Amino acid sequence: MSLYVQKFGGSSVADAEKLMHISHIIRNARAAGHDVIAVVSAQGDATNRLIEKKNEISTASFPREQDALLAAGEQISAALTAIALESTGVPAVSLLGWQVPLRSDGTHGDARILKISHTRIERELSRGRVVVCAGFQGVDGENDVTTLGRGGSDYSAVALAAAFGAERCLIYTDVDGVYTADPRLCPTARPLPTVSYEDMYALSRAGAQVLHDKCVALAQESGVEPEVLSCAPGSASTRIAASSGSRGLTGVTRRENPQDDYAAVTLVGGALPSLSIEKKAVLALNAAGVPIRGVDAGERTLTLYVDRSASREALCRIHDAVLI
To answer: Are 113 and 103 in contact (CB under 8 A)?
Structure first.
């Protein structure tokens, strides 16, 4: 049997109805003849709520204990997902990072994965079970729980796909793939069937929330081709893969820092740097009356700095000027 790794984000496991929905997605993969390792995030805003509980006691930094606390969110999701699967007749077992074990370094809050043991997961798969792994967590050399930082569950999924040679690594998100801009902000954004590792990494570094740059870097290094899609039936998807050598533009994203009064809006693609594209972007912002604080051209990127209050308009104006 071939192996699928299926990762489900916090919104996909947020309540009982959604847990039952993803259990059907997993069951369908099993019915099609695939072994499945499912990776789950904490439910909804559970991580934020755990941080709030910690801050009710102290706002000081306690990295080891905070990791132990936050890992509980994924533990709950993993157990509930396994229960949902079992309730529909699919044998399943939940595993935490230390039970796999997924070995990491000791950097609490932003750990790196070092090694994944095959023994336990292979044993469970051989018994015909779906293995539901708690994402976002590992265990260090002292057997202390570590968390993997922002996008940690995606990072877990790609690492597991690489370790077990999965046929597919499916990352289920709020949107059906990667778009030329965030479709929740830019109505004219269009979906992309494929994005190169290089461009996805650049988009992630520039603020795109689809995949974390650490996850993309591991995918490129290991040759895993993640597919980004939604849980909706018939969802389109975007495959992250090696570059085809395209000299076009891939997308535009923005990064805001709450401490700053400006934002960076960044174009990404093999056509950059390009004076003609830069001119179109500048003219589009000028026509909209959006002041430009600065411009920075780099390898495969073009960044324009604008007032933070105007960043959404700038994103959409630049997108429509150069990506439609």
So the answer is: yes
| DSSP code of residue 33 | T
313: pLDDT strictly greater than 80:
yes
Contacts of 271 (CB under 8 A, 6+ apart): 247, 248, 249, 277
Which residue reads 């095959």 in tokens? Answer: 118
pLDDT tens figures, 168-203:
999 999 888 999 999 999 999 999 999 999 999 999
Dihedral of the CA atoms 115, 118, 124, 130 (nearest 10)? Answer: 60
Q: Do 148 and 104 meet the contact criterion of CB atoms below 8 Å apart?
A: yes
CA contacts within 13 A on the Cβ side of 167: 9
User: How many other C-beta atoms are found inside a 10 Å radius of the C-beta of residue 95?
Assistant: 19
Angstrom CA distances, 186 to 43, 50, 308, stand at 27, 32, 16
Per-residue tokens: 5 = 């790794």
Q: How far apart are the first and last CA of the chain?
A: 43
Q: Do the Cβ atoms of 316 and 287 come closer than 8 Å?
A: no
Whole-prediction pTM value? 0.94
pLDDT of residue 49: 96
186 dihedral zone (left: phi>0; alpha: psi -120 to 50; beta)? beta
Please list, in sequence order, all residues whose beta carbon lies within 8 angstroms of the beta carbon of residue 299, skipping any fewer than 6 positions away.
Answer: 272, 273
Whether residue 172 contacts residue 22, with contact meaning beta carbons closer than 8 Å, is answered with yes
Q: Of the candidates 126, 106, 122, 123, which has an alpha carbon nearest to the alpha carbon of residue 114?
A: 106
